[in-house]
Amino acid sequence: MRTDHVIALIADIRERAHEWIVAELTRRGHPGIVPSHGAILVRLYDQGPMAMNALATAIGRRKNTVTVLVRKLDEAGYVRRQGSPDDSRVTLVALTEKGEAFRGDFEAVSTALLARVWGGMDDAKRQALVAGLETVRDNLG
């Protein structure tokens, strides 16, 4: 089996997953929400309001990238930015009612995507694939 196209394969899978997610979110009434918003929403669902710096660290993205993503979520009504009551230099990000209401669709889309990705692949193959991809990631630093 040829293996020299691994990066192109990963990129193709990412693009197809991205397109599917966007289409599914749009179908469910959430146009404008994209996969890069997912990491932010997961953290807020799990931990509640977070400082922008902590959020950037938690999802492994630069603060300026997170600022842009949060601004888009804020403009769409899923989150709100507010000053910290403890430190005026800190901006907190919190879910709105719309953001909380989105949780069901978010989880449903995530579950449907994983079902689509794994198809009929058995658990041993799933684990081997994930282990291999983690090694590739770690090899790249």
TrEMBL record:
Q: Which organism is it from?
A: Solidesulfovibrio fructosivorans JJ]
Mind telling me which InterPro entries this protein's record contains? HTH_MarR-typ, WH-like_DNA-bd_sf, WH_DNA-bd_sf
The GO molecular function terms of this record are: DNA binding; DNA-binding transcription factor activity
Name of this chain's protein? Transcriptional regulator, MarR family
Nucleus among keywords: no
Q: Where is the HTH marR-type domain?
A: 1-138
> What Pfam families does the entry give?
MarR
Q: Which SMART domains match?
A: HTH_MARR (SM00347)
Transmembrane residue ranges: none
Keywords for the protein's UniProt record, in alphabetical order: DNA-binding, Transcription, Transcription regulation
